[in-house]
Amino acid sequence: RDRAELESLQDAVDNFVAEDVQEFSELPLSSATLEGLKSAYYTKLTDIQSRALPLALKGKDVLGAARTGSGKTLAFLIPILEVLLRKKWGPNDGLGALVISPTRELAVQIFEVLRKIGHKHQFSAGLVIGGKSLKDEQERLSRMNILVATPGRLLQHMDQTLGFECDQLQMLVLDEADRILDMGFSASINAIVANLPKQRQTLLFSATQTKSVKDLARLSLKDPQYVAVREGI
Ligand code: ADP
Ligand code: MG
């Protein structure tokens, strides 16, 4: 059943033409993700989701700008689940996706949304945000498929945690990139990105498009698709 679903899903993605997508059920998504979305009462896409999801699902790098509250979280969590599923990512494949968030609070929120919409999937997911014992995090880290992390703590693990490897990483997400930069994490992000495989998909989301966000995008994205949603109702 699973293999047949994955093959037809990949065909559906390849043949998908995004025309004014209104509902998640119109997107080429796995039944696991659709069930997760449904159980969380998500049915209609927001603007940034309907612009960014078709591109991200096809494997493009995306630079997305939209105000706070516009629904950027699902615009990157859904592609993570779908891309890893289509690549048949399993427990022994290691870290497949990494989400970097500026603060612990935002990382926890992202993780909660991931749990809400991802419960039908088999991936292991973890938080790397500091505030608790490094050792506890270290022990679980090598088994994680999806991580949501703050920059400082992530770098600490990259430097100090034996067995923490990112060399199979398929997808990097930089969320709230403007805030990451405002908080002075620019050098940390550069050091993190230097540790990641060049062959990967990268999604960068930001509430504002500043020059430093564009500089970061130039360094971390490949042939990015720009998606900006204007203010207003
Ligand atoms: P942003 O990251 O752009 O600030 P969030 O992803 O945190 O926005 O979403 C803001 C709020 O909108 C959250 O409460 C979220 O549950 C809700 N939301 C996001 N997408 C949808 C959707 N498609 N349908 C209904 N509510 C949504
Ligand atoms: Mg957000």
From TrEMBL:
Annotated ranges, domain DEAD-box RNA helicase Q: 22-50
Subcellular location: Nucleus, Nucleolus
Domain Helicase ATP-binding, residue spans: 53-227
Sequence motif: Q motif, positions: 22-50
Domain commentary: The Q motif is unique to and characteristic of the DEAD box family of RNA helicases and controls ATP binding and hydrolysis.
Family recorded in the similarity comment: Belongs to the DEAD box helicase family.
Functional description taken from the UniProt entry: RNA helicase.
Protein name: ATP-dependent RNA helicase
Phylogenetic lineage: Eukaryota, Fungi, Dikarya, Basidiomycota, Pucciniomycotina
Full-protein positions shown: 34 to 266 of 857
